[in-house]
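Researcher: I'd like a structural prediction for the single chain below. Treat it as a standalone chain; there are no partners to consider.
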Amino acid sequence: MLHITSLNEGLEIFKALGSDVRIEILNILLENNHMSMNELASRLNITNGALTSHIKKLESSGLITTSSESAGHGNQKICSIHLDKILIDLEKQEDFQNVYNTELKVGHYSSYKICPTCGLASSKALIGEVDDSRYFEHPDRYNADILWFTKGYVEYIIPNFIPISQRITQITISAELSSEAPGVNNVWPSDISFYLNDVCVGTWLSPGDFGDSRGLFTPDWWFPNWNQYGLLKLLVINKKGTFIDGLKISDVTIDSFNLDYRSGIRFRLAVEDEAEHVGGLTIFGKSFGNYGQDIKISLNYAPIEN
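Model: Treating it as a single chain, here is the predicted structure.
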């Protein structure tokens, strides 16, 4: 998902979408996951040369990706959708210029309580044995770039290094997530709950555990019938409530936590025993999935009011 917060920031996207042909290309790729340049040109009834300029525009804006694939008569360029969602948020953010940004690796959780199926892996290998929760304590777990479990939770300590005498006015967390099915299953719903300092701020229903195509960043050694990619979710907690991808999921506001420069901040992702859909959780880091990122966090802040 791409989060656009100003018109200038989204200019290249808007230019790329300002063409009927490019819109049709995106619609075709959404229907077919990926297609070669030759197939697209034939479908659109245009020449490869005319198609190339449109593909370059879509690729430079980040809407699609291209890769070379060997075929019977040489290499073919394969086109795929890169962004599954674009969120345009033009509302002026309070104290937007005062932001502390940080990232957490998937394996840098501070506590956990999970049930199999479960496991962890770095970009190079599995960490211990799958479906044995003891390996969530293994020293190599700090290198994990993917983890998964059926129910339970992992909790992270968010570094809080905003300047002295400042209060936190908004927390934004971005992570690539999916359900956890035995093997993979694109239709495998799971209620994933988010907690801040032991307060449940909301729940998101993950639609599935995706394995229909290999993740763009998933390493070559990874097993083809295992989790391949997730959906990039944007969780925002501000003075108006808690939001996922711009949609309000609860009335819990940032003001209810009274967070300032001295506050400890714990963030938990959980699949509860009593949830309607106990379908597990997978968290993807920068070496897995489609987005090449760890758990990204932004803390907006402003002076403490006397």
